[in-house]
């Protein structure tokens, strides 16, 4: 019986020892779990902050796009304002010439002044006439309305300009209408 009591005491001690080990392990795991929960809460708070910041940035970007569209539309709407003002000056000059000219010479000189003014306005804005005099036909600048043989002009050269053409900053606005020599 003494052996049995010793065995029981040893079993109780072993059980107590295992119990204490398990209890210690459980406490350790509880601490780990609470640390993981804290870290998770911190990460959730950071995620919420980032999400909130992302929403604000997205709203700011949408507002920027709307403002940019509004500014672009305003710019397009009034882009030609300066040239229109200058054309209106020419228009008013025509009106003054017509109202104050009683004879042909006065009318002609007034119209010539206005013509020169318009030419200067167009040149200032970057509009230039396409040259045609003694020029070789260029399909990127000229439109051939007529083709004819001519002994005085080389083959492929312009004989006569029928209507002027214009460029605006190196882009053709209106092609020159020409008569071309073809032999």
UniProtKB/TrEMBL annotation:
Which cell locations does it reside in? Cytoplasm
The domain of life for this entry's organism is: Archaea
The cross-references to InterPro entries, in alphabetical order and at most eight, read: GrpE (IPR000740), GrpE_CC (IPR013805), GrpE_head (IPR009012)
Q: Supply the alphabetized keyword list.
A: Chaperone, Coiled coil, Cytoplasm, Stress response
Organism whose genome encodes this protein: Methanobrevibacter oralis
Function, as annotated, reads: Participates actively in the response to hyperosmotic and heat shock by preventing the aggregation of stress-denatured proteins, in association with DnaK and GrpE. It is the nucleotide exchange factor for DnaK and may function as a thermosensor. Unfolded proteins bind initially to DnaJ; upon interaction with the DnaJ-bound protein, DnaK hydrolyzes its bound ATP, resulting in the formation of a stable complex. GrpE releases ADP from DnaK; ATP binding to DnaK triggers the release of the substrate protein, thus completing the reaction cycle.
Similarity section? Belongs to the GrpE family.
Q: Which GO MF terms does the UniProt record name?
A: adenyl-nucleotide exchange factor activity; protein homodimerization activity; protein-folding chaperone binding; unfolded protein binding
Query: Could you identify this protein by its name?
Result: Protein GrpE
Q: Which GO terms describe its biological process?
A: protein folding
An example GO CC term for this entry is: cytoplasm
Q: Which Pfam families match?
A: GrpE
* UniProt subunit comment: Homodimer.
Question: What positions belong to coiled-coil segments?
Answer: 5-74
